[in-house]
Amino acid sequence: MKREKTPSVYIKRSAGDWIFDIAVVVLFCAFTLICIFPFYYLLINTISDNDLVTSGRVNFFPMLKNEAGKAVFGVQINNYTALRNVQDLGSSVLVTVARTVLGTALMVITTAWAGYLITKRKMWKRSFWYRFLVVTMYFNAGLVPWYMNMLMMGLTDNFLAYIIPGLVAPYNIILVKTYIESIPSSLEESAVIDGASTLKVWLKIILPLSVPILATIAIFGAVGNWNSFQDSLLLMNNRPDLYTLQHRLYIYLNSSSNLGAMMSQGGTISEQAAQSMLNQRVIQYTVSMVSIIPILLVYPFMQRYFVKGIMLGAVKG
Questions:
Q1: What's the rounded Cα separation, in Å, for the pair 287 and 243?
Q2: Backbone phi, then psi, for 116, in 5-degree steps?
Q3: pTM of the prediction?
């Protein structure tokens, strides 16, 4: 018996439909290029000849000098290998990686547990704690009280200053709470009937079913920890070994800016200082690229969870 083919449906499109589709594609392609070009520009400046970079001759393609001294298309990775010689950069990378991994993991665990407990009506003063949590999203004491609190708790010049304040994230807790409320209660009830404790229900049922929203808040936490530098700038005054990568980049930026200001005001600086300024600029580009790459690599693997998690976690409050 021959299988009949399903007749295809042909929809006639007008010239206006084609023009609209083409305009939308062109618009989004242009918008994509605008978003990507800053990262691309940063990349080609780090893999081009340093003299060409400082003279502003690298614009669209990586360039190297040939034997005759002319700029030609080419790639080099000397700037990345030279980062090994940058003072204290290795320790800053280790501190930032440790902060991102530990801070994100602990934040996800505490957020998942707090979000789950808030969904339990038998929780003591549940409404009060939930409202108190939401209030902290709208009112902030300010920078000075925050610093005084950190000082009184002994978190200045202390690695724990990167971890403890981020353990409770109100917005993320609300997302997790809302997501957990969308899970059928019958799953939890059946586990309780079988004798499972609250902790076991959370570990065996809630956490596996909450992977999308947990991956979502993990992205928030990882990006925030990786890019943060204000706490390092304010709290680690006597511990340069605890500077984060972003703080170290801030120092490089200030160093070259100060040298540039001296030159623009007619001041005289030594040849060594001028060369230092050029090196600082190249270091800025290279360290900036290094600080961006990990997040760019992680996000594509988490994207499939991100959209699903953020949508389901924001259906209701």
A1: 14
A2: -70, -45
A3: 0.71
